[in-house]
Amino acid sequence: MLQVNDVAPDFTLFATPDQKITLSEFKGKNIILAFYPADWSPVCSDQMALYNEMLKFFKKYDAEVFGISVDSKWCHMAFSQSRNLHFPLLADFETKGETAKKYGVYNEEEGECNRALFVIDKNGIIQWSYKSPMAVNPGADGILEALENLKTK
Predict the structure, then answer these.
(1) Are 97 and 118 spatial neighbours (Cβ–Cβ below 8 Å)?
(2) Other residues' Cβ atoms within 10 Å of the Cβ of residue 19
(3) Exactly one of 31, 44, 120, 143 is catalytic; which is it?
(4) Which helix (H) or strand (E) holds 91?
(5) pTM to 2 decimals?
(6) C-alpha distances out from residue 56 to 1, 64, 86, 125, 153, Å
(7) Helix-strand-coil split of the chain, %, nearest 5
(8) What digits encode the pLDDT tens for the residues 29-44?
């Protein structure tokens, strides 16, 4: 798993069925990457709902949040609409898990992303990373602390 001071690998992933997002387009903003195993699972649903509620706090730190799993763009679209999410879910679908592998958080045995968080600074450098147990929602405290630390640098 990538660690503090590693350069965040760039990627381009589908955010909607016809729109892609490239990480490097967000240089100059703080970024929160939330890798998670699957749409529709109870823990993942709670985790993404929490980040949706926390958006106003993340915005205070000039931070964008992106959820990433190996689910398809169509699955993400249905999940996002059903949960009324206001941040992009990115499909690491084809080649399956390629982005998660770059970040060292792909679970080969399960064929899905590990539950992992990264806070990336405005220069594209990882400032905080955390791998959570699969069955545990990691919450937002670590993210907020990392963003606060960026603010004081």
Answers:
(1) no
(2) 9
(3) 44
(4) strand 89-91
(5) 0.97
(6) 28, 10, 11, 23, 21
(7) 35, 25, 40
(8) 999 999 999 999 999 9
